[in-house]
């Protein structure tokens, strides 16, 4: 293994007593220019090359640009889905649904970009992410829902559910609420799921868009979803949507 592996993937590095490893202090920072892309947002953080939130070139093959959150919980989060109610026309925009993550991820600013399940699974295979983070805020009811899956068996089962498995995973113990979360949904994981409680997802909606529609379901009516054919829900019971309402999904 070379020094590049030692820096970006220390868990894969094998020490060679006969080798000398020299750090090049004059190298371009990973993710700073397209010819020196980071492997992922997490890779850029791990190498100490993060320059705050923003766009970075990344590569699992040919470089492409993604948006990285380099602050939340230590950073390294790649944005894979977003909807912001920017104006009254936002909900009327055409949806772009694709299994090609190289098409979806760089176009996050166009709002209705949905990476379908097979593409999400391919992204996991290529990028190697192990966590998913969900965020949303609606002025009505005025709460923030913000959680990330844990790095444990329960959290790994959630990642599998959204990429390859049909088994609805256990909710409680699979995620952690972030400091700004003040939602009822995150506090009632034992009530998630349909038909069985304490589960992610909804049995009737185990389709290619499960990441965006009823990823979490509480049967009194609270959901997490931002698909135009469904009400845009964020820990609410069919409240109206307002300018500035936001949904985001990240992986790391």
Automatic annotation (TrEMBL):
<keyword id="KW-0479">Metal-binding</keyword>
<keyword id="KW-1015">Disulfide bond</keyword>
<dbReference type="GO" id="GO:0046872">
    <property type="term" value="F:metal ion binding"/>
</dbReference>
<dbReference type="GO" id="GO:0070492">
    <property type="term" value="F:oligosaccharide binding"/>
</dbReference>
<protein>
    <recommendedName>
        <fullName>Fibrinogen C-terminal domain-containing protein</fullName>
    </recommendedName>
</protein>
<dbReference type="InterPro" id="IPR002181">
    <property type="entry name" value="Fibrinogen_a/b/g_C_dom"/>
</dbReference>
<keyword id="KW-0106">Calcium</keyword>
<dbReference type="Pfam" id="PF00147">
    <property type="entry name" value="Fibrinogen_C"/>
</dbReference>
<dbReference type="InterPro" id="IPR014716">
    <property type="entry name" value="Fibrinogen_a/b/g_C_1"/>
</dbReference>
<dbReference type="InterPro" id="IPR036056">
    <property type="entry name" value="Fibrinogen-like_C"/>
</dbReference>
<keyword id="KW-0430">Lectin</keyword>
<dbReference type="GO" id="GO:0005615">
    <property type="term" value="C:extracellular space"/>
</dbReference>
<feature type="domain" description="Fibrinogen C-terminal">
    <location>
        <begin position="32"/>
        <end position="82"/>
    </location>
</feature>
């Amino acid at each position: 293994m070379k020094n590049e592996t030692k820096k970006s993937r220390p868990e894969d590095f094998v020490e060679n007593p006969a080798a000398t490893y020299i750090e090049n202090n004059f190298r371009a920072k990973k993710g700073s220019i397209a010819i020196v892309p980071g492997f992922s947002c997490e890779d850029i953080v791990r190498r100490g090359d993060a320059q705050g939130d923003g766009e970075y070139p990344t590569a699992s093959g040919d470089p492409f640009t993604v948006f990285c959150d380099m602050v939340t919980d230590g950073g390294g989060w790649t944005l894979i889905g977003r909807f912001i109610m920017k104006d009254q026309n936002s909900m009327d925009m055409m949806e772009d649904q694709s299994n090609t993550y190289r098409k979806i991820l760089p176009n996050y600013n166009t709002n209705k970009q949905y990476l379908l399940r097979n593409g999400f699974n391919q992204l996991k295979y290529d990028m190697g992410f192990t966590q998913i983070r969900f965020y949303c805020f609606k002025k009505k009811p005025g709460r923030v829902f913000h959680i990330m899956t844990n790095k444990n068996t329960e959290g790994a089962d959630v990642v599998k559910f959204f990429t390859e498995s049909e088994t609805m995973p256990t909710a409680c113990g699979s995620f952690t609420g972030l400091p700004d979360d003040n939602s009822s949904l995150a506090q009632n994981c034992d009530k998630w799921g349909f038909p069985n409680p304490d589960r992610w997802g909804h049995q009737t909606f185990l389709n290619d868009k499960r990441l965006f529609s009823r990823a979490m379901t509480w049967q009194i009516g609270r959901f997490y979803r931002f698909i135009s054919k469904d009400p845009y829900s964020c820990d609410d019971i069919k409240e109206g949507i307002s300018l500035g309402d936001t949904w985001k999904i990240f992986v790391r």
